[in-house]
Amino acid sequence: MGSPIDHTANHSYPAAAVHAAFVDPQYWHTRLAEVGGPGAAVDRIEQGDGTIDLDLQQAIPAEHLPSAVTSIRPGDLVIHRHESWGPLSGDRAEGRFSAGVDGMPGKVEGTLTIAGDGDASTVIVEGSVEVKIPFLGSKIEAMIVDQLVALFEAERTFTERWLKGDFRA
Q1: Which pLDDT band, with edges at 50, 70 and 90, does 131 fall under?
Q2: Does some domain include residue 12?
Q3: Domain holding 143: CATH number?
Q4: Which residues contact 23 (CB under 8 A, 6 or more apart)?
Q5: Residue 35 falls within a domain, yes or no?
Q6: Which domain covers residue 67, as residue numbers?
Q7: Residues in CB range of 19: below 8 A, 6 or more apart
Q8: C-alpha neighbours within 13 Å on the C-beta side of residue 63
Q9: pTM reported for the whole predicted model
Q10: Which of 15-24, 58-67, 94-103, 150-159 has the lowest mean pLDDT?
Q11: Which of 6, 80, 81, 159 is 20 to 30 A from 42, comparing alpha carbons?
């Protein structure tokens, strides 16, 4: 069944501005450099007319992981993440995400929505984390959800700074 992911990120910019960032390859390269963790990289980007489909690699250092995780899988947790965004329609855009971890029997997946409200917008993340390890799966799922929420908040802060112009030459 898995553990749910429900996160809402409020932005002080309209949906069109947030969406424009999300479909800009430079945004992703800069975002991973700023908040992606050690070894973070954009592995693949396909950009269309107001759309993007990309594969990312991120890692959580072993020293930041609970012993329940490192006893099963020693070393850094390497995460392969996929994200895609469809076109903006009015003040709304939809996307999908998924992620997996090297050496772990589990998955993360869900939907993304940008919803505009005048000069502000919200990014809604809904999904689930499922780790298929007897007795420890739910504990690891809870840890992953906590890590994801912290990451989503760091990404929200980065996006606000990007839209403000902090990373432009």
Answers
A1: confident
A2: yes
A3: 3.30.530.20
A4: 47, 50, 51, 52, 85
A5: yes
A6: 3-164
A7: 50, 85, 88, 93, 114
A8: 2
A9: 0.90
A10: 58-67
A11: 6
